[in-house]
Automatic annotation (TrEMBL):
<feature type="domain" description="Transcriptional coactivator p15 (PC4) C-terminal">
    <location>
        <begin position="19"/>
        <end position="66"/>
    </location>
</feature>
<protein>
    <submittedName>
        <fullName>YdbC family protein</fullName>
    </submittedName>
</protein>
<dbReference type="InterPro" id="IPR017154">
    <property type="entry name" value="PC4-like"/>
</dbReference>
<dbReference type="Pfam" id="PF02229">
    <property type="entry name" value="PC4"/>
</dbReference>
<dbReference type="GO" id="GO:0006355">
    <property type="term" value="P:regulation of DNA-templated transcription"/>
</dbReference>
<dbReference type="GO" id="GO:0003677">
    <property type="term" value="F:DNA binding"/>
</dbReference>
<dbReference type="InterPro" id="IPR003173">
    <property type="entry name" value="PC4_C"/>
</dbReference>
């Protein structure tokens, strides 16, 4: 498997934390030197390991916010 390079550009917030210290976070992340995207996934305390997650573009995150606002 190829090495995946990432850089957390901006930490936006923590949604939850497991008993083992892993945190579900929303961050702005650059993957393999590409433009940063919004990223929602679980991270180990040292940010060296991560779980599966989802990346969203600016437009997708705006649409998600719109959907959540309609729900209320």
């Amino acid at each position: 498997m190829a090495d995946i390079k990432y850089e957390i550009i901006e930490h936006l917030g923590v949604l939850s934390e497991s008993s083992k210290g892993w945190k579900k976070e929303l961050n702005l992340v650059s993957w393999n030197g590409r433009d940063p995207k919004y990223d929602l996934r679980e991270w180990a305390p040292d940010h060296e390991k991560m779980g599966k997650g989802v990346t969203l573009t600016e437009e997708e995150i705006k649409q998600l916010v719109h959907i959540m606002q309609k729900k209320q």
